[in-house]
Specification:
This protein is of the alpha/beta class. It has 13 helices and 17 strands. It has a seven-stranded mixed beta sheet, sandwiched between helices. Helix 3 (50-63) runs antiparallel to helix 10 (295-302), helix 4 packs parallel to helix 10 and helix 11 runs parallel beside helix 13. The structure holds pyridoxal-5'-phosphate (PLP).
Amino acid sequence: MLKVNEHYLKLQASYLFSDIAKRVAAFQAKNPEREVIKLGIGDVTNPLPAACIQAFHTAVDEMATTSGFRGYGPEQGYDFLRSAIAVNDFQARGAEVHADEIFVSDGAKCDTGNIQELFAADARIAIPDPVYPVYLDTNVMAGRTGSFKDGRFEGIVYLESTQANNYVPDLPTEPVDLIYLCFPNNPTGSTITKEQLKVWVDFARDSKALILFDAAYEAFIRDPKLPHSIYEIEGAREVAIEFRSYSKSAGFTGTRCAYTVVPKECMAYDAGGNKQPLHPLWNRRHCTKFNGVSYPVQRAAEAVYSPEGKAQCTALIDGYLGNAKIIGKAMAELGYSYVGGDNAPYIWIQGNRDSWEFFDMLLDKAGVVCTPGAGFGKCGQGYIRLSAFNSEANVVKAMELIRQALA
Ligand SMILES: *Cc1c(COP(=O)(O)O)cnc(C)c1O
Protein backbone atom coordinates (compact mmCIF):
# COMPACT_ATOMS: atom_id res chain seq x y z
CA MET A 1 0.00 0.00 0.00
CA LEU A 2 1.41 3.31 -1.08
CA LYS A 3 1.24 5.97 1.57
CA VAL A 4 1.10 9.69 0.85
CA ASN A 5 3.33 12.35 2.29
CA GLU A 6 1.15 13.09 5.32
CA HIS A 7 2.52 16.61 5.55
CA TYR A 8 0.60 17.54 2.41
CA LEU A 9 -2.59 16.69 4.26
CA LYS A 10 -1.84 19.40 6.81
CA LEU A 11 -1.96 22.10 4.16
CA GLN A 12 -4.96 24.29 4.29
CA ALA A 13 -6.31 23.94 0.77
CA SER A 14 -5.47 27.37 -0.55
CA TYR A 15 -8.97 28.63 -1.19
CA LEU A 16 -7.97 32.29 -1.45
CA PHE A 17 -7.78 32.88 -5.19
CA SER A 18 -10.32 30.20 -6.10
CA ASP A 19 -12.69 31.66 -3.48
CA ILE A 20 -12.23 35.07 -5.04
CA ALA A 21 -12.84 33.69 -8.54
CA LYS A 22 -16.01 31.94 -7.34
CA ARG A 23 -17.42 35.08 -5.75
CA VAL A 24 -16.60 37.14 -8.85
CA ALA A 25 -18.22 34.57 -11.14
CA ALA A 26 -21.38 34.50 -8.98
CA PHE A 27 -21.54 38.30 -9.02
CA GLN A 28 -21.17 38.43 -12.80
CA ALA A 29 -23.86 35.78 -13.30
CA LYS A 30 -26.25 37.81 -11.16
CA ASN A 31 -25.26 41.17 -12.67
CA PRO A 32 -24.34 40.51 -16.32
CA GLU A 33 -24.58 44.21 -17.18
CA ARG A 34 -22.13 45.35 -14.48
CA GLU A 35 -18.46 45.86 -15.30
CA VAL A 36 -15.91 44.20 -12.98
CA ILE A 37 -12.44 45.75 -12.54
CA LYS A 38 -9.80 43.43 -11.13
CA LEU A 39 -7.28 44.91 -8.72
CA GLY A 40 -6.81 41.60 -6.95
CA ILE A 41 -4.22 39.26 -8.39
CA GLY A 42 -0.51 40.10 -8.38
CA ASP A 43 0.03 39.69 -12.11
CA VAL A 44 1.31 42.35 -14.48
CA THR A 45 -0.85 43.60 -17.35
CA ASN A 46 1.47 45.52 -19.70
CA PRO A 47 3.32 43.83 -22.61
CA LEU A 48 7.04 43.01 -22.55
CA PRO A 49 9.45 45.94 -23.12
CA ALA A 50 10.36 46.43 -26.81
CA ALA A 51 14.06 45.78 -26.14
CA CYS A 52 13.23 42.36 -24.63
CA ILE A 53 10.93 41.46 -27.52
CA GLN A 54 13.59 42.37 -30.05
CA ALA A 55 16.27 40.27 -28.29
CA PHE A 56 13.75 37.43 -27.90
CA HIS A 57 12.99 37.46 -31.67
CA THR A 58 16.66 37.60 -32.62
CA ALA A 59 17.45 34.64 -30.38
CA VAL A 60 14.59 32.60 -31.80
CA ASP A 61 15.94 33.24 -35.31
CA GLU A 62 19.41 32.12 -34.16
CA MET A 63 17.88 28.84 -33.03
CA ALA A 64 16.69 28.31 -36.62
CA THR A 65 20.27 28.21 -37.95
CA THR A 66 22.86 25.44 -37.65
CA SER A 67 25.53 27.83 -36.38
CA GLY A 68 23.24 29.63 -33.94
CA PHE A 69 21.35 26.62 -32.59
CA ARG A 70 21.75 25.91 -28.87
CA GLY A 71 20.84 22.72 -27.08
CA TYR A 72 21.17 22.29 -23.32
CA GLY A 73 22.81 25.37 -21.85
CA PRO A 74 24.61 25.66 -18.52
CA GLU A 75 22.08 24.88 -15.75
CA GLN A 76 23.16 28.00 -13.84
CA GLY A 77 22.50 30.28 -16.81
CA TYR A 78 24.55 31.67 -19.68
CA ASP A 79 27.55 33.82 -18.78
CA PHE A 80 26.18 36.75 -20.77
CA LEU A 81 23.20 36.99 -18.42
CA ARG A 82 25.01 36.16 -15.16
CA SER A 83 27.65 38.80 -15.88
CA ALA A 84 25.05 41.43 -16.78
CA ILE A 85 23.22 40.68 -13.52
CA ALA A 86 26.35 40.90 -11.36
CA VAL A 87 27.43 44.20 -12.89
CA ASN A 88 24.07 45.98 -13.17
CA ASP A 89 22.02 44.70 -10.24
CA PHE A 90 24.80 44.52 -7.64
CA GLN A 91 28.25 45.93 -8.41
CA ALA A 92 26.71 49.18 -9.75
CA ARG A 93 25.10 49.63 -6.30
CA GLY A 94 28.29 48.85 -4.41
CA ALA A 95 27.14 45.34 -3.48
CA GLU A 96 29.69 42.56 -3.88
CA VAL A 97 28.15 39.77 -5.96
CA HIS A 98 30.01 37.76 -8.59
CA ALA A 99 28.63 36.19 -11.76
CA ASP A 100 29.39 32.66 -10.53
CA GLU A 101 27.24 33.23 -7.43
CA ILE A 102 24.13 33.73 -9.59
CA PHE A 103 21.78 30.87 -10.47
CA VAL A 104 19.38 31.75 -13.29
CA SER A 105 16.03 29.97 -12.99
CA ASP A 106 12.46 29.90 -14.25
CA GLY A 107 11.02 31.72 -11.25
CA ALA A 108 11.47 33.12 -7.79
CA LYS A 109 8.41 31.12 -6.73
CA CYS A 110 10.25 27.87 -7.49
CA ASP A 111 13.50 29.10 -5.94
CA THR A 112 11.95 30.40 -2.71
CA GLY A 113 10.00 27.14 -2.55
CA ASN A 114 12.92 24.83 -3.31
CA ILE A 115 15.66 26.42 -1.21
CA GLN A 116 14.40 24.82 2.02
CA GLU A 117 15.60 21.43 0.72
CA LEU A 118 19.13 22.42 1.74
CA PHE A 119 18.29 22.63 5.41
CA ALA A 120 17.70 20.15 8.21
CA ALA A 121 14.20 18.84 8.82
CA ASP A 122 14.34 20.28 12.34
CA ALA A 123 15.48 23.77 11.29
CA ARG A 124 13.51 26.41 13.17
CA ILE A 125 11.69 28.59 10.66
CA ALA A 126 10.65 32.24 11.02
CA ILE A 127 8.02 33.43 8.55
CA PRO A 128 6.33 36.83 8.29
CA ASP A 129 2.58 37.24 8.83
CA PRO A 130 1.01 38.35 6.49
CA VAL A 131 3.06 36.51 3.87
CA TYR A 132 3.46 35.29 0.29
CA PRO A 133 2.15 31.74 0.91
CA VAL A 134 5.00 29.85 -0.84
CA TYR A 135 7.49 30.13 2.05
CA LEU A 136 5.08 28.63 4.55
CA ASP A 137 3.48 25.95 2.38
CA THR A 138 6.81 24.50 1.20
CA ASN A 139 7.98 24.12 4.79
CA VAL A 140 4.70 22.43 5.69
CA MET A 141 5.19 20.00 2.77
CA ALA A 142 8.72 19.29 4.02
CA GLY A 143 7.38 18.38 7.45
CA ARG A 144 8.82 21.31 9.41
CA THR A 145 5.52 22.14 11.10
CA GLY A 146 2.89 20.58 13.26
CA SER A 147 -0.78 20.86 12.42
CA PHE A 148 -2.87 23.91 11.58
CA LYS A 149 -4.60 25.32 14.66
CA ASP A 150 -6.38 28.65 15.10
CA GLY A 151 -5.12 29.99 11.80
CA ARG A 152 -1.49 29.03 12.35
CA PHE A 153 0.88 26.11 11.92
CA GLU A 154 2.46 24.75 15.07
CA GLY A 155 6.23 24.92 15.12
CA ILE A 156 6.55 28.06 12.98
CA VAL A 157 7.80 31.31 14.49
CA TYR A 158 5.52 33.97 13.02
CA LEU A 159 7.00 37.42 12.47
CA GLU A 160 4.06 39.77 12.85
CA SER A 161 3.88 42.76 10.52
CA THR A 162 1.36 45.19 11.91
CA GLN A 163 0.64 48.88 12.18
CA ALA A 164 2.48 48.85 15.52
CA ASN A 165 5.83 47.99 13.87
CA ASN A 166 5.03 49.81 10.61
CA TYR A 167 4.89 46.42 8.85
CA VAL A 168 8.56 45.58 9.47
CA PRO A 169 8.68 42.65 11.91
CA ASP A 170 10.63 42.82 15.17
CA LEU A 171 13.37 40.27 15.90
CA PRO A 172 12.01 36.98 17.22
CA THR A 173 12.25 36.40 20.95
CA GLU A 174 12.90 32.67 20.51
CA PRO A 175 15.77 30.98 18.63
CA VAL A 176 15.35 30.56 14.86
CA ASP A 177 17.62 29.20 12.11
CA LEU A 178 16.00 30.26 8.85
CA ILE A 179 14.35 33.64 8.34
CA TYR A 180 12.21 34.64 5.38
CA LEU A 181 12.02 38.37 4.59
CA CYS A 182 10.44 40.08 1.57
CA PHE A 183 10.97 43.78 0.82
CA PRO A 184 9.36 45.70 -0.84
CA ASN A 185 6.70 43.46 0.65
CA ASN A 186 3.94 41.42 -0.85
CA PRO A 187 1.17 41.83 0.36
CA THR A 188 1.69 45.01 2.42
CA GLY A 189 3.82 47.10 0.01
CA SER A 190 5.97 48.12 3.00
CA THR A 191 9.73 48.69 2.69
CA ILE A 192 12.75 48.22 4.96
CA THR A 193 15.55 50.75 5.57
CA LYS A 194 19.25 49.88 5.57
CA GLU A 195 19.35 50.38 9.34
CA GLN A 196 16.42 48.02 9.89
CA LEU A 197 17.88 45.41 7.56
CA LYS A 198 21.25 45.68 9.32
CA VAL A 199 19.52 44.67 12.56
CA TRP A 200 18.37 41.44 10.87
CA VAL A 201 21.78 40.76 9.32
CA ASP A 202 23.49 41.22 12.71
CA PHE A 203 20.91 38.98 14.34
CA ALA A 204 21.51 36.24 11.74
CA ARG A 205 25.28 36.50 12.25
CA ASP A 206 24.96 36.32 16.04
CA SER A 207 22.60 33.33 15.96
CA LYS A 208 24.24 31.37 13.09
CA ALA A 209 21.00 31.73 11.16
CA LEU A 210 20.34 32.45 7.50
CA ILE A 211 18.11 35.09 5.88
CA LEU A 212 16.21 34.25 2.71
CA PHE A 213 15.63 37.67 1.18
CA ASP A 214 12.94 37.92 -1.50
CA ALA A 215 13.55 41.10 -3.53
CA ALA A 216 11.04 40.38 -6.32
CA TYR A 217 9.76 43.97 -6.09
CA GLU A 218 13.17 45.68 -5.92
CA ALA A 219 12.56 47.50 -9.22
CA PHE A 220 9.68 49.45 -7.64
CA ILE A 221 11.98 51.22 -5.17
CA ARG A 222 12.13 54.94 -5.93
CA ASP A 223 13.34 56.23 -2.54
CA PRO A 224 17.14 56.52 -3.03
CA LYS A 225 17.79 55.71 0.65
CA LEU A 226 16.21 52.25 0.54
CA PRO A 227 18.38 49.16 -0.08
CA HIS A 228 17.68 47.26 -3.33
CA SER A 229 19.72 44.26 -2.24
CA ILE A 230 20.53 42.74 1.14
CA TYR A 231 24.17 42.70 0.00
CA GLU A 232 24.21 46.48 0.39
CA ILE A 233 24.33 45.65 4.11
CA GLU A 234 27.73 44.92 5.64
CA GLY A 235 28.16 41.30 6.65
CA ALA A 236 25.22 39.99 4.61
CA ARG A 237 27.32 37.80 2.31
CA GLU A 238 27.82 35.25 5.10
CA VAL A 239 24.17 35.07 6.15
CA ALA A 240 21.85 35.85 3.24
CA ILE A 241 20.54 34.31 0.03
CA GLU A 242 18.67 36.71 -2.26
CA PHE A 243 15.90 36.01 -4.76
CA ARG A 244 15.14 38.22 -7.75
CA SER A 245 12.73 37.90 -10.65
CA TYR A 246 12.02 39.56 -14.00
CA SER A 247 8.30 38.85 -13.44
CA LYS A 248 7.35 42.17 -11.90
CA SER A 249 10.38 44.23 -13.03
CA ALA A 250 10.05 43.51 -16.77
CA GLY A 251 6.67 41.80 -17.19
CA PHE A 252 8.07 38.25 -17.37
CA THR A 253 5.27 36.52 -15.40
CA GLY A 254 4.35 34.51 -18.49
CA THR A 255 7.86 34.41 -20.00
CA ARG A 256 9.57 33.03 -16.85
CA CYS A 257 13.02 34.12 -15.75
CA ALA A 258 14.45 34.82 -12.32
CA TYR A 259 17.63 34.22 -10.35
CA THR A 260 18.99 33.37 -6.92
CA VAL A 261 22.22 34.68 -5.41
CA VAL A 262 24.16 32.32 -3.15
CA PRO A 263 27.40 34.02 -2.06
CA LYS A 264 30.41 31.75 -1.62
CA GLU A 265 30.68 32.79 2.06
CA CYS A 266 27.14 31.65 2.92
CA MET A 267 27.25 28.81 5.45
CA ALA A 268 25.15 26.35 7.37
CA TYR A 269 26.43 23.72 9.81
CA ASP A 270 26.68 19.94 9.67
CA ALA A 271 25.87 17.54 12.51
CA GLY A 272 29.41 17.94 13.82
CA GLY A 273 29.06 21.71 13.97
CA ASN A 274 31.40 22.26 11.01
CA LYS A 275 30.71 25.02 8.51
CA GLN A 276 29.27 23.83 5.21
CA PRO A 277 29.18 26.29 2.31
CA LEU A 278 25.73 26.52 0.70
CA HIS A 279 26.90 27.47 -2.79
CA PRO A 280 27.99 23.92 -3.78
CA LEU A 281 24.83 22.44 -2.24
CA TRP A 282 22.52 24.74 -4.19
CA ASN A 283 24.62 24.14 -7.31
CA ARG A 284 24.15 20.39 -6.82
CA ARG A 285 20.40 20.71 -6.38
CA HIS A 286 20.02 23.11 -9.30
CA CYS A 287 22.02 20.89 -11.70
CA THR A 288 20.26 17.72 -10.58
CA LYS A 289 16.68 18.98 -10.71
CA PHE A 290 16.73 21.82 -13.25
CA ASN A 291 17.93 22.05 -16.83
CA GLY A 292 18.24 25.75 -17.45
CA VAL A 293 16.10 28.59 -18.77
CA SER A 294 15.64 28.64 -22.55
CA TYR A 295 18.21 30.58 -24.57
CA PRO A 296 15.76 33.09 -26.10
CA VAL A 297 14.32 33.88 -22.66
CA GLN A 298 17.79 34.51 -21.24
CA ARG A 299 18.55 36.83 -24.18
CA ALA A 300 15.27 38.65 -23.51
CA ALA A 301 16.28 39.01 -19.83
CA GLU A 302 19.74 40.26 -20.82
CA ALA A 303 18.05 43.04 -22.83
CA VAL A 304 16.62 44.42 -19.55
CA TYR A 305 20.16 45.76 -18.93
CA SER A 306 20.61 47.51 -22.30
CA PRO A 307 20.17 51.31 -22.22
CA GLU A 308 16.82 51.00 -24.04
CA GLY A 309 15.74 48.09 -21.83
CA LYS A 310 16.52 50.04 -18.65
CA ALA A 311 14.54 53.06 -19.85
CA GLN A 312 11.60 50.89 -20.93
CA CYS A 313 11.48 48.96 -17.63
CA THR A 314 11.61 52.21 -15.67
CA ALA A 315 8.71 53.58 -17.73
CA LEU A 316 6.77 50.34 -17.25
CA ILE A 317 7.13 50.48 -13.49
CA ASP A 318 6.52 54.22 -13.33
CA GLY A 319 3.14 53.48 -14.92
CA TYR A 320 2.23 51.01 -12.18
CA LEU A 321 3.54 53.35 -9.47
CA GLY A 322 1.35 56.10 -10.95
CA ASN A 323 -1.64 53.77 -10.57
CA ALA A 324 -0.60 53.05 -6.98
CA LYS A 325 -0.59 56.79 -6.26
CA ILE A 326 -4.12 57.15 -7.68
CA ILE A 327 -5.32 54.27 -5.46
CA GLY A 328 -3.61 55.63 -2.33
CA LYS A 329 -4.97 59.14 -2.87
CA ALA A 330 -8.53 57.88 -3.39
CA MET A 331 -8.44 55.66 -0.30
CA ALA A 332 -6.97 58.44 1.84
CA GLU A 333 -9.71 60.81 0.67
CA LEU A 334 -12.28 58.23 1.70
CA GLY A 335 -10.73 58.22 5.18
CA TYR A 336 -8.89 54.88 5.06
CA SER A 337 -5.37 54.46 6.36
CA TYR A 338 -3.00 52.39 4.26
CA VAL A 339 0.67 51.56 3.62
CA GLY A 340 2.53 50.73 0.43
CA GLY A 341 2.25 52.09 -3.08
CA ASP A 342 5.30 54.41 -2.90
CA ASN A 343 7.98 51.80 -3.61
CA ALA A 344 5.73 48.82 -4.33
CA PRO A 345 2.76 47.92 -6.52
CA TYR A 346 0.55 47.00 -3.55
CA ILE A 347 -1.61 49.14 -1.29
CA TRP A 348 -2.50 47.54 2.05
CA ILE A 349 -5.66 49.12 3.38
CA GLN A 350 -7.02 48.97 6.89
CA GLY A 351 -10.69 48.24 6.34
CA ASN A 352 -11.92 48.47 9.95
CA ARG A 353 -14.03 45.37 9.30
CA ASP A 354 -13.67 41.72 8.33
CA SER A 355 -11.49 41.27 5.21
CA TRP A 356 -14.08 39.20 3.33
CA GLU A 357 -16.88 41.56 4.32
CA PHE A 358 -14.89 44.43 2.79
CA PHE A 359 -14.18 42.30 -0.29
CA ASP A 360 -17.90 41.54 -0.78
CA MET A 361 -18.87 45.16 -0.29
CA LEU A 362 -16.37 46.43 -2.88
CA LEU A 363 -17.50 43.78 -5.34
CA ASP A 364 -21.25 44.28 -4.81
CA LYS A 365 -21.30 48.06 -4.63
CA ALA A 366 -18.39 49.05 -6.88
CA GLY A 367 -17.66 46.00 -9.05
CA VAL A 368 -14.01 46.15 -7.93
CA VAL A 369 -12.07 43.00 -7.01
CA CYS A 370 -9.48 43.24 -4.22
CA THR A 371 -7.66 40.55 -2.23
CA PRO A 372 -8.84 40.00 1.36
CA GLY A 373 -5.88 40.40 3.70
CA ALA A 374 -6.91 37.44 5.84
CA GLY A 375 -5.85 35.18 2.96
CA PHE A 376 -2.21 36.11 3.65
CA GLY A 377 -2.22 35.26 7.35
CA LYS A 378 -3.79 36.01 10.69
CA CYS A 379 -2.33 39.54 10.82
CA GLY A 380 -4.01 40.30 7.48
CA GLN A 381 -7.47 40.10 9.03
CA GLY A 382 -9.18 43.48 8.75
CA TYR A 383 -7.12 44.51 5.73
CA ILE A 384 -7.48 44.31 1.96
CA ARG A 385 -4.78 44.47 -0.71
CA LEU A 386 -5.30 46.53 -3.86
CA SER A 387 -2.87 45.99 -6.71
CA ALA A 388 -1.63 48.63 -9.15
CA PHE A 389 -1.37 46.05 -11.94
CA ASN A 390 -4.00 47.32 -14.39
CA SER A 391 -4.37 50.11 -16.93
CA GLU A 392 -4.48 53.67 -15.62
CA ALA A 393 -7.94 54.10 -17.18
CA ASN A 394 -9.25 51.06 -15.26
CA VAL A 395 -7.65 52.23 -12.00
CA VAL A 396 -9.21 55.69 -12.35
CA LYS A 397 -12.57 54.13 -13.13
CA ALA A 398 -12.27 51.70 -10.21
CA MET A 399 -11.52 54.51 -7.77
CA GLU A 400 -14.50 56.51 -9.07
CA LEU A 401 -16.75 53.46 -8.59
CA ILE A 402 -15.40 52.94 -5.05
CA ARG A 403 -15.98 56.63 -4.27
CA GLN A 404 -19.62 56.43 -5.44
CA ALA A 405 -20.15 53.16 -3.60
CA LEU A 406 -18.77 54.35 -0.27
CA ALA A 407 -20.23 57.89 -0.45
C1 LIG B 1 5.51 37.65 -7.87
C2 LIG B 1 6.40 37.26 -6.77
C3 LIG B 1 7.57 36.53 -7.00
C4 LIG B 1 7.99 36.19 -8.42
O1 LIG B 1 7.71 34.89 -8.73
P1 LIG B 1 8.11 34.31 -10.16
O2 LIG B 1 8.01 32.85 -9.95
O3 LIG B 1 9.50 34.75 -10.48
O4 LIG B 1 7.11 34.82 -11.15
C5 LIG B 1 8.39 36.20 -5.93
N1 LIG B 1 8.09 36.58 -4.68
C6 LIG B 1 6.99 37.29 -4.42
C7 LIG B 1 6.72 37.71 -3.03
C8 LIG B 1 6.10 37.64 -5.45
O5 LIG B 1 5.00 38.33 -5.17
